[in-house]
Amino acid sequence: MGYVATKGGEDAIANANQLVEFYRVKERTTPIEIAQIQAQFRLLIDKIMGEGSLYAPEHAALVLKQNEGDVFESAFMLRAYRATLQRRYYSETLATREMFVRRRISSAFREIPGGQILGPTRDYSQRLLDGELAEETLGSVEAFIASFEGELDLSSLRAVPTIGKVIDLLTAEGLLREANPDENRRVVDVTREAIKFPAPRSAALQMLARAETGGLMALAYSAQRGFGSVHATVGELRMGEVPVRVRDARGRVRVIGRVRVTEAEMISKIKVQKKDPVPYLSLGYGLCFGQNETKAICMGILDRAMRSGGDAPCQSQEFVLYHTEGIESYGFTNHLKLPHYVTFQSSLSNLRQAVERKDKKRGNLGFGMAATAKKETSA
Questions:
Q1: For residue 207, what are the domain limits?
Q2: Which of 88, 125, 247, 350 has its CA 20 to 30 A from that of 223?
Q3: Which spans in 53-150 are helix H?
Q4: Number of domains in the chain
Q5: What is the spatial distance between Cα 36 and Cα 334, in angstroms, rounded to a whole number?
Q6: Are 200 and 63 contained in the same domain?
Q7: What was the pLDDT predicted at 42?
């Protein structure tokens, strides 16, 4: 694809950058602190960290401020920053059974071991504008926190028990089975190894975890509407902190911190096959940074759909993974704003030549017909 430099381009770009900065501050309002963005826009920060593929809340808040709330550009910038960092360790597999659970629900069962934990969610409230937020002050925030903490009965708090998985119940009954026992289980790092199709499940899940939430939701929704063979139920959805472990130089496993993640285990029924006439349930899995329940659920649906076989878009591994990668699609779409003078002028030149040849051919044909008519008249 051809590009050409425009005269005075560097000065124009520098001025454009200055104009962006001017538009950001021209109203002379109090600058928003990074700590405020990180604390009050936690769901947005989680989304940027997931798509940027870097668990760094402060950096996510910084790029969000720098890009004036543009989520695509912020994730793009965070992913680019990630590429400059030195990789020191590979973490051990996250043990989500050790999660410090802050929210945990199941739509498949009413009663589950450990109970349903609603946690922080707006799922059960009406979507109404809260006009009081327009008058919110630090004093009103402090008053709410004091009132909330005053209602807590700290004496009843106890150590959080290890909460088992809902899928354990179905596994114990023999109802939940692996639908693809022969699939490639090789663990790959998609940031170091080019993906090849059919890709191992580990690579597919990595790419889904880095994918754009809206793209995942569109394809997962298509699967639920019948454009695919998967109609899933939330076996378990949980959100909380899990420990991150690495091995040091001596091979000892050490905990270096905790990260907040959302995990979804989606249950779907497998169609009866002639070779195996007994129906059973299978699992789709989703895990992503922060609290992003929509993304985790859609990951679980598409994980199951891509392994089910079929001709629907949501069942094509290549279609799903390539077209939900937000950074790639954002970059390609926006590169269309860059100069394409060479390629377009070439296409335009070919078009003009084709039109000219057609007009010339038509002119020659018209001259021949006129000469024939004149000859017949003379005869």
A1: 96-121+136-332
A2: 125
A3: 57-66, 71-83, 138-150
A4: 2
A5: 30
A6: no
A7: 93
Per-residue model confidence (pLDDT) at position 275: 64
pLDDT of residue 158: 62
* 272 and 310 part of one domain: yes
d(CA 52, CA 288) in angstroms, rounded, equals 11
- The region that residue 82 occupies, defined by phi over 0 for left and psi between -120 and 50 for alpha, beta otherwise, is alpha
Angle at 211 between CA 322 and CA 105, to 5 degrees: 135
Instruction: Give the pLDDT of residue 282.
Output: 85
Q: What tokens does 44 get?
A: 């947005």
Within a domain: 72: yes
* Angstrom distances, CA of residue 286 to CA of 68, 239, 293, 336: 30, 12, 9, 33
| pLDDT number for residue 229 | 75
pLDDT given for residue 4 in this prediction: 46
Classify the C-alpha dihedral 228-234-236-241 as positive or negative: positive
Q: Do both 190 and 233 map to the same domain?
A: yes
**Residue 375, pLDDT score:** 55
CA-based nearest residue to 192, from 90, 47, 46, 72:
90
Alpha-carbon distance 371 to 302, whole Å? 70
φ, ψ of residue 108 to 5 degrees: the values are -85, -30
The answer to whether residues 15 and 160 belong to one domain is no
The pLDDT of residue 114 is: 83
Residue 280: its pLDDT value, please? 77
| Residues lower than pLDDT 50 in the chain | 1-5
Nearest to 75 by CA among 214, 169, 256, 269: 214
